[in-house]
Amino acid sequence: AIQITVADSRDGACSSSTLKEASSWGKVDTTKEQMVFAEATSVLPLIASDAYHTGEWKNRERKNFSKIF
Q1: Which contacts of 53-62 are long-range, i.e. CB under 8 A and separated by 24 or more positions?
Q2: Per residue in 7-28, pLDDT tens?
Q3: How far apart are CA 43 and CA 60, in angstroms?
């Protein structure tokens, strides 16, 4: 899981919704978590590019979004 935020959790700006808090609820796998303190439009292209070029997405199960409707 990756959380991109400009807020600082020390002053309560993240409303305690950090990845460490989510892992305590069992919502996030703690082995692969990263908190990114940056503006999303500056780092999201870098993260998407890395995810695409490493090819990790090829092994994931394909989602069938037609079941939603």
Answers
A1: none
A2: 766 666 666 577 666 766 666 6
A3: 23
β partners of residue 34: 2
Q: Is residue 65 part of a domain?
A: no
Whether 51 and 57 have beta carbons less than 8 Å apart is answered as: yes
To the nearest whole number, what is the mean pLDDT of the chain?
A: 77
- Cα 69 to the center of its chain, rounded Å: 25
* Number of domains into which the chain is organized: 1
* pLDDT at res. 11: 61
Which range marks the domain in which residue 55 is found? 2-59
- Chain centroid to CA 9: 16
- For residue 49, is it within any domain? yes
